[in-house]
Amino acid sequence: MKVSGIMSRAAMAAIILGSGTAVFAHTHNSHASMTTHGRITSCDQIEFSFDDRPAARDEQTFNIARSQAPTLKAHLSEGVGLTAFTGSSSDYVVHACKAASANYSAPSDENLAAIRAEFSNGELRVHSPESDNWGMYLIVEAPA
Fold this sequence. Notes:
This protein has helices at 9-14, 108-113; strands at residues 15-17, 25-26, 32-36, 46-50, 53-54, 56-64, 72-75, 80-86, 92-100, 116-120, 123-127, 134-142. By secondary structure, the protein is mainly β. Strands 2, 6, 8, 9 and 12 form a 5-stranded mixed sheet that branches. A 4-stranded mixed sheet has the order 1-7-11-10. Strand 10 (116-120) and strand 11 (123-127) form a beta hairpin.
């Protein structure tokens, strides 16, 4: 699990990561890369590419009341990266940065539509396409 950024002990303790890996993209037959610029606080700071071609991109944003998740649990799968830091809000703000490319079974927009993050019962989960060539990066702003 990759967690970067500066956060208070209370904020770090409030985020528990489920099982998963810190790889960026789920891909078998292509090269995937992610380039960032400085401390990551928004999706537009991340450049996604597959085989040196820009990926299709989208973003989801969640505002999660601290009362709904005193401890936010994130269940991450292969293909998902994460950074977390203490934000200025009293609640969690989660940005799910999504990227996909076309493959033999689906165009990039179809793959992109199949990538989604979902929050329920204090847990953040990621759902992905069954195809390759996708990735997601979660930016978690923990309560101050």
